[in-house]
Design a protein that fits this description.
Blueprint lengths: L1 E5 L2 E6 L6 E7 L4 E4 L7 H11 L3 E5 L5 H4 L2 H7 L5 E4 L2 H5 L28 E3 L4 E2 L2 E5 L8 E5 L4 E3 L4 E2 L5 E2 L9 H4 L4 H12 L5 E3 L6 E2 L2 H15 L1
Parallel strand pairs: 4-5, 5-6, 6-7, 11-14
Antiparallel strand pairs: 1-2, 2-3, 3-4, 8-9, 9-10, 10-11, 12-13, 14-15
């Protein structure tokens, strides 16, 4: 486990040099908001990170319901039964194993590791604009139909889940990077992902934090280039 701090944001990384999987702890006055739950064995590392910060985990927020983002959730929830779990209204269905599509959605199969045996259920269902402490929820479908990003209104840090990746080079969800193609393989709709990527560039983030790869400061130019790259491939 590796821990990197940037302002109120702490990146917790597992398998950093091989197959990096990130989750995040966001510091608030009263405690920590955990964003994503990484891999099945990750609870010990997450709790060690929280202890080093010196505050309790008081909320658990999920960017989407893929297994590498909810892996330790059952174990964490067993240890912290009173801590609420937040996920988007749409990905709550995937969290429960429902991979059906709505009529208005791009009619391609939902991909990636969908939980099949997870017991935990969300306490709070999020929609566009909801606040979780200092984090504004932004609907960013594409990687999954209900993917969400979270914008820290204090610092303008953007925690984007798999809407972007930086491992193997910055890319919008669905754009295959040969050195790290896995987020692209798990992406439901590239076309929808491009729309969401443009949307969050509009928030003018000062820091981009993703599910796979390093945090990126002053990311707007790189994000815009990544969008152009995928748009060109989709023509």
């Amino acid at each position: 486990m590796r821990l990197i701090k940037n302002g109120f944001l702490f990146q917790v990384t597992f398998m950093a040099s091989v197959f990096p999987v990130n989750c995040y702890l966001v510091e608030e006055e009263e405690g920590l908001t955990l964003i994503d739950a990484a891999l099945p064995y990750s609870m010990t590392g997450i709790f060690k990170a929280a202890k080093s910060i010196g505050k309790p985990i008081t909320k658990i927020v999920l960017t989407h319901a893929h297994e590498d983002h909810v892996g330790a959730l059952d174990k964490i929830k067993e240890a912290l039964p009173d801590v609420p779990v937040y996920i988007s209204v749409r990905d709550n269905r995937i969290m429960q194993g429902d991979t059906s599509l709505d009529v208005h959605e791009h009619q391609t199969p939902i991909k990636g590791g969908v939980p099949k045996k997870m017991k935990t259920r969300a306490n709070v269902l999020l929609k566009e604009g909801d606040l979780v402490g200092s984090l504004a929820a932004i609907e960013t479908p594409g990687h999954t139909p209900g993917s969400m990003s979270f914008f820290d209104i204090r610092t303008h840090a953007l925690i984007a889940g798999d809407t972007f990746q930086t491992r193997g080079g910055i890319a919008v969800a669905g754009d295959v990077k040969p050195w790290f193609p896995f987020p692209a393989f798990g992406t439901w709709s590239k076309q929808t992902a491009v729309v969401s990527a443009k949307k969050i560039v509009g928030y003018q983030p000062r820091l981009l934090a993703v599910g796979h790869g390093e945090m990126l400061g002053n990311p707007i130019g790189a994000m815009e280039e990544a969008i152009r790259n995928l748009e060109q491939k989709l023509k």
